[in-house]
Amino acid sequence: MKPIRESQIEKYLVAQVKALGGECRKVRWIARANAPDRIAMFPPCSGVNTAWIELKAPGKKPTSGQLREHERMRSMGERVEVIDSFEGVDKLIGEMK
Q1: Are 27 and 37 in contact (CB under 8 A)?
Q2: Structural domain contains residue 1
Q3: The domain that contains 75 carries what CATH number?
Q4: φ/ψ of residue 5, rounded to 5
Q5: What is the structure's pLDDT at 46?
Q6: Structurally, how many domains does the chain consist of?
Q7: How far, in Å, CA of 16 to CA of 14, rounded?
Q8: Contacts with 32 (C-beta within 8 Å, 6 or more apart), sequence order
Q9: Which end of the chain is more exposed for a tag (fewer CB within 10 A), N or C?
Q10: Pairing between β-strand 23-26 and β-strand 38-41 as defined by DSSP bridges
């Protein structure tokens, strides 16, 4: 059995967000390293309508620079999630329903 790749988790995330009626966009950061890969925008069915997503291959952890950037964003009231599995996507989707 082949190991699961980050790109497979990313495709699953995009499909699940879309199935919920939301949008998931790839983010390109100009002059800002270590920021999350995607923003997921959900219909106004929960208290939080957006989540920044840092995708990782299974078992991989964010770098120290990414962790610092995530904390900066959280201190500004942003929701930042690190997801490294299909189950992590399902958990996020469940919270947004």
Answers
A1: yes
A2: no
A3: 3.40.1350.10
A4: -100, 155
A5: 57
A6: 1
A7: 6
A8: 69
A9: N
A10: antiparallel
